[in-house]
Task: structure prediction
Amino acid sequence: MFGKAYSSISKQSLKIHKEKLRDILNRSKPIPLEQRINKLNQINTGWVNYYGVSKCKGILGQLDIWIRRRLRMCIWKQWKKVKTRYRNLKKLGLTHYQSIKFANTRKGYWRIANSAALNTTLTNQFFADLGLKSLTASLY
Result:
């Protein structure tokens, strides 16, 4: 690769951006999901426009996955009660047995956010329908 120069996103700027996102995706803040997604889209659009010229598709893909997992965690926290979790999992298409199994789990919010139950029900398309813009899709 002689003769070619590539720019990339520095670790420090990625860390600062993640801190901003953590503030929005804080599970303790009672912010409606639509409002969270609007704020995320504003911040991410500006960030992608600034760093769009660099070679960063891999970093943006990983950041996309991380953002969706944080959103799943916030949704799981909002459901709080076992009864609410069961009903919502049933609405999203899980069977009766699977809904009971996952609604009664004792696992933490972050761990459950990466579980098969939430990954198959709260899919990328689910978040796209709510208005979340993908970082990699907005880049190319």
